[in-house]
Amino acid sequence: MPYLMSRVNCTYDQISRALMARSAGSFLGACLAGVICEIFPGLVDLWIALSLILAAVCTAAAPWCTQLLHLAGALGGTGLARGMLSVGKLWVCFMIINVQLRNIFGRQSSGLLL
Model-level pTM? Predict the structure, then answer.
């Protein structure tokens, strides 16, 4: 944290505000991923891959930021990607469980999961 403060030239209060961008991004990412999973269920794997790329780019860019706004953007992008990943991985797990239940019971497992 002290290295980041000296690189961006700001105080603890300003860094904590930039870190709030990651939490806000995580919330927005989870909401966005929920909508995407409902509207485009066949493209969930693509969205997971794109959010992994976004997380990698933003995580790699954060230490190189020299302005607080850029740092907040990089942390917000990381949070957005993490939110999308958390919902996307649950969606994939539920779809796998649903397929397994369908194979076991030989019918659609409505009422149990999706």
Answer: 0.80
